[in-house]
Design a protein that fits this description.
The structure holds 2 protein chains of 2 kinds. Chain A is an alpha/beta fold. Chain A has helices spanning 22-37, 61-68, 85-98, 118-125, 141-156, 160-174, 188-192, 221-227, 256-269, 286-295, 304-309, 327-331, 338-350, and strands at 4-11, 46-50, 76-79, 104-111, 196-198, 201-202, 212-220, 232-241, 278-281, 321-322, 364-371, 376-384. Chain A has a domain at 4-116 and 209-227: Thiolase/Chalcone synthase (Peroxisomal Thiolase, Chain A, domain 1), CATH 3.40.47.10. Chain A has 13 helices and 12 strands. Chain B is globular and about 45 Å long. Chain B starts with 17 loop residues before the first helix and ends in a 15-residue tail after the last strand. The chains are: A alpha/beta, B mainly beta. The structure holds zinc ion.
């Protein structure tokens, strides 16, 4: 079976980017990806834009981005799967290439989160859940994940200090990532003093909104071999869903969509959890990373708290090096961009280009990108030649 | 009348809009499929099992067990005056789950996973328009304003 590979990656700076429009952010990442691939725009035959539209003043953002990148009249379209929009775009590019319809596709995640006034953001925040039966009680995004955390702590003895150790790790690596929103270490003592958000969470359990863009260029095996000597192959894809409503989940200690997606991705790539050397997982909240350790099979169910406490997810910690780009927690979470940013990091790791953050012998990597509270999950497995 | 339901209403129109009318009268209603008998809470008009659209409301006792909870300190638009509030998910004895605030008989520090509770219909007293909801309370708690028939 022919493969699909990533031949170029680009990443802009994440943060409060009041200096740029969404298409200007997209341009930064797109130019960097073309330069990284060493190709001209004319090699592309389509683009796919990942963004979550309700945060943008500009409607139909794919159109304005396509024009600003000077990609007309190539085809483009938008993918949306909440915070997993970026990985939905990567999956869509893989499908477009495998179908034979396209050969070289640019996937561009671009998101401005800070265009809206605080009041508008707070109003959006009240509609993240199921609006008929849950949002009427003022549920919030942190509140949902907090309810997972409450249950995980109850069932497995996971502690708030263990949750916060995820934030400590991710800030540690974010401090070494020039694209990150927070490039600053945080100690456990400092994290414990964070303002309460939704019990058991304080601010250090939560990722922050950010503006930012990332771009990856995917190509068919033939075109990749002709254009690039450093292709990283997308060999395993998984996608699964779970109920929108928290009320209809089978349990609250993991995400069934993640378990479903990773099983598909491992099988397709012919790997197991033990083969993964580096992973970017969806740590929108600290508990989400701990559940990801378990859902992805990096540790036994219920042992996620211990996994971070023993620093196994650090580089050289004896487990899988996880979110060593800072994760959503320190990088910031421009929701449509995040899945593309994860792909960027894993590709750079597999190419051995991460400098002080490089994971030794990184030959197989994984991205785990969750939409909402697990309504969608996309898992991708990457390999180098 | 579904716009009556909740502190803030997002979906005024639904096939199960009489839920809010029942709640105002002190009755917590789930739904039962008239074809295959499948019961759901929250109620739904269209059966997820047999695809039938024929449903009837059935009254629930409101008794259940706490499944999980969180106290919200940072609130979205429309909930500013209610902060902090504790969102509790209850597994109902008769099947299904609901999300609601813990009420006055169940302050945050008493809320524990696994504890038996009573869900009680309520009306917001601080607003001129009709706004109905329910709270999670200690077992045996009744609706202060006019006790629902099944608790009377
Ligand atoms: Zn039925």
């Amino acid at each position: 079976m022919s493969r699909v590979g990533v031949i170029g990656v680009g990443h802009g700076r994440f943060g409060r980017r009041s200096d740029a429009t969404v298409q200007e952010l997209a341009f930064e990442a797109f130019r960097a990806a073309l330069q990284d691939a060493g190709i001209e725009r004319k090699e592309l035959d389509a683009s796919i834009i990942a963004a979550v539209p309700e945060y943008h003043k500009q409607r139909s953002v794919a159109g304005v981005v396509q024009e600003y990148l000077n990609l007309n009249p190539l085809p483009t379209w938008l993918t949306e799967a909440a915070c997993a929009a970026g990985s939905a775009a990567v999956r869509t590019a893989w499908m477009a290439i495998k179908s034979g319809l396209h050969q070289v596709v640019a996937v561009i995640g671009c998101q401005k989160m800070t265009e809206l006034a605080t009041a508008d953001i707070l109003a959006l925040m009240g509609r993240v859940g199921e609006v008929q039966w849950e949002s009427v009680f003022g549920t919030t995004f942190p509140g949902y994940y907090a309810m997972f955390a409450t249950r995980h702590m109850h069932d497995y003895g996971t502690t708030h200090d263990q949750l916060l150790q995820v934030a400590v790790k991710n800030h540690h690596y974010g401090a070494q990532n020039p694209n990150a929103l927070f490039q600053k270490e945080v100690t456990l003592e400092k994290a414990r003093e964070g303002e309460p958000v939704a019990s058991p969470f304080c601010v250090y359990d939560c990722c922050a909104n950010a503006d930012g863009a990332a771009c990856v260029i995917l190509a068919s095996e033939d075109r990749a071999r002709a254009l690039s000597k450093k292709t990283v192959w997308l060999d395993g894809l998984g996608c699964a869903t779970a109920s929108m409503s928290v009320l209809r989940r089978p349990h609250l200690t993991g995400l069934p969509s993640a378990v479903g997606a990773v099983q598909q991705a491992y099988r397709m790539a012919g790997v197991t959890a033990k083969d993964i050397k580096v992973a970017d997982v969806h740590d929108c909240f600290t508990i989400a990373e701990i559940m990801a350790y378990e859902d992805l099979g990096f540790c036994e169910k219920g042992q996620g708290g211990r996994y971070i406490e023993e620093k196994r997810s650090y580089i050289g910690g004896g487990g899988v090096a996880i979110n060593v780009d800072g994760g959503l927690k320190a990088k910031g979470h421009p929701i449509g961009t995040t899945g593309v940013s994860m792909t960027y990091e894993v590709v750079k790791q597999l190419r051995g280009e991460c400098g002080p953050r490089q994971v030794p012998d990184a030959d197989i990597g994984l991205t785990h990108n969750v939409g909402g509270i697990g309504q969608y999950c996309f898992v991708h497995v990457y390999k180098r030649d | 009348m579904f716009s009556w339901f909740g502190r803030v209403s997002f979906v005024p129109y639904t096939k199960v809009q009489d839920f809010a009318v029942h709640l105002k009268a002190g009755r917590m209603m789930g739904s039962r499929c008239q074809q295959c008998g499948h019961k759901t809470f929250p109620p739904r008009a269209d059966c997820p099992q047999c695809l039938s659209g024929d449903f009837e409301f059935v009254e629930y006792s409101g008794q259940g067990t706490i499944w999980t909870h969180t106290q919200i300190a940072t609130a979205p638009t429309g909930f500013d005056r209610d902060v902090p509030y504790t969102c509790v998910v209850v597994e109902l004895d008769e099947g299904g789950r609901l999300l609601a605030w813990s009420g006055e008989t169940l302050p945050q520090q008493k809320v524990k996973i696994g504890m038996k509770v009573q869900v009680v219909p309520r009306i917001f007293e601080d607003t001129p328009d009709i706004r109905v909801y329910y709270t999670v309370e200690q077992p045996g708690t009744t609706w202060g304003k006019s006790p629902p028939p099944h608790l009377g």
